[in-house]
Structures are given as structure tokens and as C-alpha cells.
Write a structure and sequence with these properties.
With 635 residues, this protein is α+β, with helices and mostly antiparallel strands. Helix content is 23%, strand content 23%. Helix 4 runs parallel beside helix 5, helix 7 runs parallel beside helix 9 and helix 13 packs parallel to helix 14.
Length: 635
């Protein structure tokens, strides 16, 4: 194929087609979908096994018997140019299969869709916006994320806040309230659950029909761009969840698009997730790979998202994921790995990091798959972060346990440090943990009302001080007691109650402490940033350790996971001098019992020949944690 641009098919050039058919066109949205050209609107769609394709819409009463598209040789792509189409019209493709059956399909590369329950595509070209985030993008591209703080606020836009009548906020309304809130609370990033168009609210956005369409629930695409721009103006990063693992069976969507298994595997043993009622993308098809690569590129390139959290990666990696014996097909080597999905993920990450240095490519991967964040040239998948689901499950199990039984389960807290540096981890307290009868975070804590709050404060102090970046789902910062409900707003009225108001103050101050103390985030990738003081005090259910910055700034952490106060508890340290408690989760201003008095603590030699030759004695309340720092004397 020649590499020069040809204007053979209304601006679709041969080289673009070649790249699309070879699985390497990551900007195919510039070729496919609706585009305004000099003599009208050009439409192009991939439907390789269709017998006929026509454009239909509100302009022909959905008949599909006038505006026929032409197939471009063996490419599988159909195109047509129409001079009587206008922006804003509703349309679909009337696709006739080889048996003569005609189905109306939404455009897989539409940039705007009707508001559910309506399912038509809307004539619109690639959205444009007057960005003013150049400084943010330059800074992002030039400063690696590893040595920066990252504390993510995970948000479901529809239920963060709602109007009193139950109607949804617009993207602009969300931007004007959410961004200042997040900045005030000390979070560094927002992660939004999928905003790619989806038909069913109850899927939370994870069953996608429009991989290039910003959901119309909250307004038009330019308003979403306004939200992203607003984040960047306030130095907040924004990440979007993205779902290349599967898609729903909705008849207007990708399912059997041209009458055959077009986007999905033909064999249900590969192409179907029965548990979810969804179809699996066929990563062996070059055109499907180009489609998905282009979707990822589109959201970062056109909408300036700072990264993507790739959903359900485990289901992509394993052919036998959630399948019984006989319900899956081994790969060509007899194994259970999906080799073409692995290739797709590696190529995705190589392209994204080549084009967008230092963006975030985050894997939601729940197994022990090796090198999820390892480099692709060494066999890794190439992500730069992975959710640490093991830590989340172990920790929440421990915190829901009667303290009487915590002594033999002490390892649930310490085991994380056995593998903390095997990948680049994000520690998630995510939406998945506060639904389906799992209880809210505060309600997971063992005990009565006061104990739950005390335990929750201790959990967060422990969580923010561990190696790894952080993520908390909305509502966790106000200690909402009921589970998250996707069709209701958060219980903001709880902030009228002193306990919840003080808890929000605690989370805010804890978040700001995290950002302001580089010991908590600067050395997240190796043991230089962490040192155990005492990991083995299972008898008292107490942990003590220190976090260390690259220039040797230190924060000492001590957490007591039982209701029993520990008097004159010994903490060994490596430097002689005076220390003070700089944060105590049992402070009255956070809803605890202690007055906020800073007390100086002086070390004494413990007589040991260890690398921690000095000791401090502190009083630590039951179900509480403290942060200590050495008082530096002025020269």
C-alpha cells in the first residue's frame, strides 16, 4: 500500500484503510463515523459481512431505502456522502445481512447519542473545545507520576449529587461543584466511572454501546471537555474508566453488528460472559483492535483525560475466566491465557505512552498475573499502575473482624509488604466494596457506632501511610452508612450531624497531610521509602513503621487495632532527639476523645545494637493511629 494520502473515497485514503485492516490504526475515528466535508456529510462504517448498508433516520422516517452506502473493495468498510444531511439529525445504519434480514444499528463511531432510553446516533463531527490547559499538559508530560502524590476521588457522576426533583446534574454543574470540592478536600485526581455511552443506568456505565460518544445524560461532549478543562485549571488530574473487555447484547449496539459475530468471538466459549450477559471482543480481528485502540486514543487525545483505568482486565487475560470445565477453549499451546488479548493490551500501552508521556494506564486486575506493570519488552503488560485488590480484601476482612480474633489474623495487615513492590500499586477503597450487601466502609467496621468511627479513622490513617497510590470512592469521606445507590445522590445531609462533619474534617486534614509530606509518596516503588519498626506485635494488634522521602524526611506511624489503650507503648527509632505527634486519629476535632495538645517526646537509648537504637514511649488510645515527626532544630 502506498503511504501517500489518496482522496479516492471522499477523503478516506488507502493508507488509513490499510492501517485499519492491519490493526494499527489508532485514529480510525477520523475515518469512520460522521464527518462534515466540503460537499456534505460523509459516513463510514465497518460491516464486513453485510449485503447492504443504508443510512436512515428522522430525515426519511427510518425507512433506509434511499441513502445507500458503497463498500470499499475488500476492506469491509462502507461509505457514503449526502448533501442534504444536517448536524443534529438522528440516524442509524440499516444493515441487511446475507439472509435478507435488516436491522437498524447505531453508529459504533458516533460522537453523540440520544439520551436513553432512545438509541439513535446524532449527526455530529469530532467535538472541538477551546482548551487552556497547555501548562498542565506540559507539566504532566514532563514529570513522571511515580514520585508525585496521587490520591484519587472515585466518582459516579449521576449519583454524586442530584437535583431535588431527582434530575441529573449537567457536566457543567458537576464541574462547578465537584472540582472545588475535590481540591478543598485534598485529593489530587478524580476518577470517573465510564462516560462512554451506555443504555442501562444499572450497569453504572460498564456495559458500553458508544465507545466514542460521551454519554448524553449530562449534556453534550463539549460540556464534558469543560469538566476536564476545569480540573486542569485547578491542577486536578482526571481519569476515566474504560471497558475494552466486553459489551452488551442490546440490538442497536455492536452485538452481531452485520448479522454475524462482527466485534465478538463467534464461538460462545470465547465470545460470551454468561455471568454478565455480555459479549467478549474478538481481539484476533485486526479491525476490532483498531476500533479499541482508537477509542482509548480518542478520550486522551480529544478530551485531554489524564489516563484510563482499564476495567475487568482479568476477564481479558484468561480464556477460562468465570467459566466451568467444558465452557472454554484452550489457546494454541493448550493454556488458558488469551494470547491475542495480551497482545492487544501490550500494544495499547505502547501506543498510549508513546503518544502521551506519563499518562495513567491503570489495570483493574485481581489475580496474581505477573508483570502487569512490567515493561512490554520484557513480557509485561505495560500498565503503569494496578489496583491492589489483595490488600483491599485482606484489610477489609480484618477491619470487619471482632478485635478478639485479630491476634491470629495479624498477617492480614502485614502481608501486603511481602509483595508491595512487585508491581506499581494503587490501594483502592472502591465502589465495588460498598454495594451488593457488602455494607459501606464505615459500616464494615466491627462494633457499635463509636467504635465504627474510631476504627474507620484508624483504617484511613493506615491506608494513607502505606506504599502505593490511593483511591477512595465518593461518600467514604463523609462516612455514609448506607450502601451506595446508583440512582440516588449521596447523603450530604449527614454533614448536619457532628460525627459526620468531624469525620469529613478528618479526611480533609489527612488528605492534605498526605500531599504535604513527601515521605508518604516519593518512594512508593522500593524499600527505600518504608521501614518496619515492629510488624510482629500481634499480641497487642499494633503496627509501627516509618515512611521515608528521598532526602530522608521521615514520618513514624503507629496504629492500634484493638479497643484497649496502650500506655507507655515503646516505638524504636533510628534518630535521637525530640519528636511530636503531628496527627492523632483520636482527636476531639475528628470525633475522638483527646484534646489537641502537642506533646514533645524525647528519645532515650534502648541499649540495642540494632539500626533502631533509640526508643520513644507513647500513650495510644484504643482503635487509633498516630503520626509522629522528629522536631528539627534550627541551626
Amino acid at each position: 500500500m502506498p503511504t501517500d494520502i489518496k482522496q479516492s473515497w471522499a477523503g478516506i485514503d488507502e493508507f488509513q484503510l490499510y492501517l485499519y485492516n492491519s490493526g494499527t490504526n489508532f485514529q480510525s475515528y477520523e475515518m469512520l463515523g460522521p464527518h462534515k466535508i466540503e460537499n456534505g456529510w460523509r459516513f463510514a462504517v465497518w460491516a464486513p459481512n453485510a449485503e447492504n448498508v443504508a443510512l436512515c433516520g428522522d430525515f426519511d422516517n427510518w425507512q433506509g431505502n434511499q441513502k445507500f452506502l458503497t463498500k470499499i473493495s475488500t476492506t469491509g468498510i462502507w461509505f457514503g456522502v449526502f448533501d442534504d444531511i444536517e448536524e443534529g439529525m438522528l440516524y442509524k445504519y440499516a444493515i441487511t445481512d446475507k439472509f435478507g434480514n435488516t436491522v437498524l444499528k447505531a453508529d459504533p463511531v458516533s460522537f453523540l447519542c440520544e439520551v436513553r432510553p432512545n438509541t439513535a446516533s446524532i449527526v455530529k463531527d469530532i467535538p472541538k473545545f477551546s482548551w487552556n490547559d497547555k501548562d498542565w499538559i506540559n507539566k504532566r508530560n514532563n514529570i513522571p507520576i511515580y514520585d508525585k502524590p496521587m490520591n484519587i476521588y472515585e466518582v459516579h457522576l449521576a449519583s454524586w449529587k442530584m437535583h431535588e426533583d431527582g434530575s441529573l446534574y449537567s457536566y457543567r454543574e458537576i464541574a462547578d461543584e465537584l472540582v472545588p470540592y475535590v481540591k478543598d478536600m485534598g485529593y489530587t485526581h478524580i476518577e470517573v466511572m465510564p462516560l462512554t455511552e451506555f443504555p442501562f443506568d444499572g450497569s453504572w456505565g460498564y456495559q458500553v454501546t458508544g465507545y466514542f460518544g460521551a454519554t448524553s445524560r449530562f449534556g453534550n461532549p463539549e460540556e464534558l471537555m469543560y469538566l476536564v478543562n476545569k480540573c486542569h485549571e485547578n491542577e486536578i488530574g482526571i481519569i476515566m474508566d474504560w471497558v475494552p473487555a466486553h459489551f452488551p447484547r442490546d440490538l442497536h449496539g455492536l452485538y452481531k453488528f452485520d448479522g454475524t459475530a462482527t466485534y465478538e468471538y463467534a464461538d460462545s466459549r470465547l465470545g460470551e460472559h454468561k455471568e454478565w450477559g455480555t459479549m467478549v471482543f474478538d481481539y484476533s480481528k485486526s479491525e476490532v483492535v483498531s476500533f479499541l485502540l482508537s477509542s482509548a486514543f480518542y478520550w486522551v487525545n480529544e478530551f485531554h483525560f489524564d489516563g484510563l483505568r482499564v476495567d475487568a482486565v482479568s476477564s481479558m487475560l484468561y480464556r477460562d475466566y468465570s467459566r466451568k470445565d467444558g465452557e472454554w477453549i484452550p489457546n494454541k499451546y493448550g493454556g488458558n491465557q488469551n494470547l491475542e488479548a495480551i497482545d492487544f493490551l501490550q500494544n495499547l500501552n505502547k501506543i498510549m505512552f508513546e503518544k502521551f508521556p506519563n499518562i495513567l494506564m491503570i489495570a483493574e486486575e485481581s489475580t496474581a498475573w505477573n508483570m502487569v506493570t512490567g515493561p512490554t519488552d520484557k513480557g509485561g503488560l505495560g500498565f503503569n499502575y494496578k489496583w491492589n485488590m489483595g490488600w483491599m480484601n485482606d484489610t477489609l476482612r480484618y477491619m470487619s473482624m471482632d478485635p478478639y480474633f485479630r491476634k491470629p489474623n495479624h498477617d492480614l495487615l502485614t502481608f501486603v509488604m511481602c509483595y508491595a513492590y512487585s508491581e506499581n500499586f494503587i490501594l483502592p477503597l472502591s465502589h465495588d466494596e460498598v454495594v451488593h450487601g457488602k455494607k459501606s466502609l464505615v459500616d464494615k467496621m466491627f462494633g457499635e457506632y463509636e467504635e465504627k468511627f474510631a476504627s474507620y479513622r484508624t483504617l484511613l490513617a493506615y491506608y494513607l501511610s502505606l506504599p502505593g497510590k490511593k483511591l477512595m470512592f465518593m461518600g467514604g469521606e463523609i462516612a455514609q452508612f448506607i450502601e451506595w445507590r446508583y440512582d440516588e445522590g449521596l447523603e450530604w445531609h449527614l454533614l448536619k450531624l457532628e460525627k459526620h462533619k468531624k469525620f469529613k474534617t478528618y479526611v480533609k486534614e489527612l488528605n492534605h497531610f498526605y500531599v504535604e509530606n513527601k515521605a508518604f509518596w516519593q518512594n512508593d516503588q522500593d524499600w527505600g521509602g518504608f521501614k518496619w519498626i515492629n510488624a510482629q506485635d500481634r499480641d497487642n494488634s499494633v503496627l509501627s513503621y516509618m515512611r521515608i522521602s528521598k532526602d530522608n524526611e521521615k514520618v513514624i506511624i503507629c496504629a492500634n487495632f484493638t479497643p484497649v489503650a496502650r500506655e507507655n507503648y515503646v516505638i524504636n527509632v533510628d534518630e535521637e532527639g525530640e519528636y511530636e505527634i503531628v496527627l492523632n486519629t483520636d482527636s476531639k476535632k475528628y470525633g475522638g476523645n483527646l484534646s489537641a495538645k502537642k506533646k514533645k517526646l524525647k528519645t532515650k537509648n534502648n541499649g540495642n545494637m540494632s539500626d533502631l537504637p533509640y526508643e520513644l514511649k507513647i500513650n495510644i488510645s484504643g482503635l487509633s493511629a498516630v503520626y509522629l515527626k522528629k522536631i528539627e532544630k534550627e541551626n
